[in-house]
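Task: encode each sequence below as structure tokens.

Item 1
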Amino acid sequence: MAAMGAEGDRVAQRFERGSRAFAVMEAGKVVSYGWLSTEPEWIGELGLEISPADGEGYVWNCLTLPDHRRHGHYRALLEGVVAWARGEGLQRLWIGSIEDPAEKADADVGFAPVLFFESTTVFGWRILRARAAPDADRELVRAARARIRPWRVVDRSRHLVH
């Protein structure tokens, strides 16, 4: 997948483990893409794994190419992923965001903040903590913590390719 640039060589592995790819096309070219998994996935930004329960999925590695940002492509991508997931019978989707524009689109499509992560590295050791979003439903917080292990971490910084 050319739109993924240096990560394009990971596509086959992702399909082999059951991940699904979604894309927004414009003039025959991919302008935005993202992935959906119902099996465990590594969250590189946090350095931990999410394991969706039965009937759940994890939306990840979403990107809109720089020249196409701020045109609603990310929102359209999420709308497509959510519609497909509903059609497949998934009852809950998890997503992580680290940018304000993405978080607005996430909310517009129906996602709500559940956990906020704080990561600090001191002398090569990473300290990661998850705290509940202020207005998060307590059942969702419990469910999120059950899917993400470990949700409190002190370990050596590491990088895995997924």
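Item 2
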Amino acid sequence: LTTHYMDEADHCDRIAIMDEGQIVAIDSPTALKAQVGLDTVLIGTNDDNRALALLKDDFQIEATLTDGLVRFGVPDGESFVPKLFNTSIEINSVSVAKPSLDDVFMEFTGNTIRDAETSSKRGMGVSSMPGPKALGRR
């Protein structure tokens, strides 16, 4: 299977990311996402400046303000979020986003998948390669 649809590739056992006709990464979707890095956490607060300072002072996390939300990255957002509720930050909303295959593609190629789809000069894509069971090996 060759696809530019990351949601299709995400269901495969193993994928290869290609850039200019060369395989630049190959592994399971989960393993590739883990290589990309941090979960993105967005919190809505009543005092963003105080939240930024507390994250820096108490957790050594550099956060930014994006569209009225405090944004930062941590290795395991779902485990980190409960720690926020034990601080003096008044939290109104929280969301955690895991890295996606789009993030993986960007990390390994320097381009978005949309750039790859529209580029006629470059041979980029994502290929699915079945695992041993799909090949019928035992």
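Check on item 2: Residues 120-124, 129-138 have pLDDT under 50 and may be disordered. The beta strands are 2-3, 15-19, 22-27, 39-45, 64-66, 69-74, 91-97, 125-128.
End of task.
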